[in-house]
Write the C-alpha cells for this entry.
Amino acid sequence: MTTEHTHLIGGKHVKGTSGRFSDVFNPATGEVHGKCPLASAEEVRHAIEVAKAAQPGWAAFNQQRRARVMMEFVRLLHRDMDKLAEAISREHGKTFPDAQGDVQRGLEVAEFCIATPHLLKGEYSDSVSPGMDMFSMRQPIGVAAGITPFNFPAMIPMWKFCPALSCGNAFILKPSERDPSAPLMLAEMMIEAGLPEGVLNVVNGDKVAVDAILDDTDIGAVGFVGSTPIAHYVYSRGTAAGKRVQCFGGAKNHMIVMPDADMGQTVDALIGSAYGAAGERCMAVAVAVPVGDDTADRLIDKLAPRVENLKIGPYTAGNDVDFGPLVTRAAYDRIRGLVDSGVEQGARLAVDGRGFSLQGYEGGNFLGGCLFDHVTTDMEIYKEEIFGPVLCTVRAKTYEEAVGLAVDNEYGNGTAIFTRDGDTARDFITRINVGMVGVNVPIPVPLAYHTFGGWKASHFGDLNQHGPDAFRFYTRTKTVTVRWPSGVKEGSQFSFPVME
Ligand code: NAD
C-alpha cells in the first residue's frame, strides 16, 4: 500500500496541491511505499502567512507556559518513542535501536529548552548615568524556518524547532522528502502538547519550497543541515535576501591512531563509528589515520575480520543488526561507484562489501562494509564525502603528517585521536581546526547543553546548533536605555558628551 503524505499547516494535515510528488522507498526492499508532496511556492507562502498570524499570540504566552508545552512534548516523546523509531527505520533503513537514538538525541534538546526562561534572561546595568538604567532583552525573530536532511529525520528537526519555538517564534519545517513521516508526527505531538495551531508548520518539498523559504521577506532566520554544496547555496541565497542563516554541511572525519593506542578499544570504536547507520552520519569516521606502518598493520589485521563479520540486514531482523540498507538506490549506486574508483585508482580494498546480498531482499540497497588500506589524498574516495559503510585508511609516517591531513582537509566537522599520551592529545586539541574533537571518543557529538557545529566547509554562518548558541540564533537583542524625570538635566545637548 502506498501512503500519500501531507503537509501540516495551521494544525491540520493538508494534501499537496502542486501535483508533484517524490517517492518514499522501503530501503530494505526497494519498493515505493509512500508519496511525498512537493510544495509549490504558493503552498509555502500560505504556510508562512499562517505562521505569521499565529506568532504574536505564541510570543505573548508567558515564558513558563511556553516551557510547559516543551515539558509535555518531552513526555509525549517518551510515550511515542517506539512509534517514531519504527517510522524512521521504515523510511530511512537504520536499525530500530539507532532510530530510538535519533529520537533520544532530539528529546535531549527539547529537555534543555525547558530552561528557556533562564536562557533568555537579559542583561541589566543600573545607574549608567545619574538616574539612567540600561537593559538588553532577547526577542523572537518572528517566523523562522528549518531545512533538514534525511539522515536524522527526528533529531535534526527537533534541534531546529525546539529552541526556535521556545524563544517565541513560529516555525516552518521543510524536512527531507526521503523520510517525511517522523517530522509530521513530531509536529502533531507539539500540537498535542499544547502548541497553538499554526505556530509549527511542516511543508514538504524540494528546491522549489527551499527557494520560496529563502526569498520570503517574512522569514527572518533559516537553519539548514545537509550536504556542503546545498549548504553553501542556501547560505548565499538566504543571506542575500537579508536573513540570518546558519548552514551545517558535509564532513570527512579523520581519526588518528597513535602507536600507543589500545588497539582493542580503537577497533571497537572504529567499527561502530565508521559503519553504524551504514556510515550515513555527518559524524561518522570516514578516514582512519594510523601513525607508522606497524600501527597500520596491527589496525588492519584486527579490523578486517570485524568488518567481514558485520551483521547487515533490515531493521525487522532484530536489534542485533549492526546496520541496514542505504537510503536510496541512487545513494547505493553513487557509493558503489566510489568504491570502484578507489580500486581503479590503486587503493587496496582489504574488505570488499560490494558482493553482499541478502536472500529475500535482493531489491534492497544493501552494501556490505568496505575497508580500504593505502588510500592517498589524490583519490576520489579520499576527496569525496562517501556517506556509506566505507572506511578509508591513510597511513601516516609521523604524528605531524597525520595532523596535517586533518588540518588540510576541506571539511572540519568532527575528528578524534586515539592515544594514551596526554601531551599528544593536548597538542592535537589545541592545533586542530575542526569543530568537534574526541580524545579516545570516536564520535564526539556534544550534548544538548553544549553546541554542535563544524568548521571550514562543514559550516557556513556563525553560531552553532543547540546549547546556548541556539537561543542567540533564534532571538534578536534589543537594548533599552531608561531615564526617569528625576535624572533628566535641564537644556538640550547637541554633541556626544566627552569626559570632563
Ligand atoms: P541534501 O543536501 O541532499 O538535502 C538537505 C536538504 O536540502 C533537504 O531538505 C533537501 O530537500 C534540500 N535540498 C536538496 N537539494 C536541494 C537543492 N538543489 N536546492 C535546495 N534545497 C535542496 O542532504 P541529505 O542527502 O539529505 O543529507 C546528507 C548530508 O547532510 C551529508 O552531506 C551529511 O554530512 C550532511 N549532514 C550534516 C550534518 C551537520 O550537522 N553538519 C548533520 C547531518 C547531515
Observations:
- Residues 64 and 117 are 7 Å apart (CA to CA).
- The chain has 15 helices and 23 strands.
- The chain has a mean pLDDT of 97.
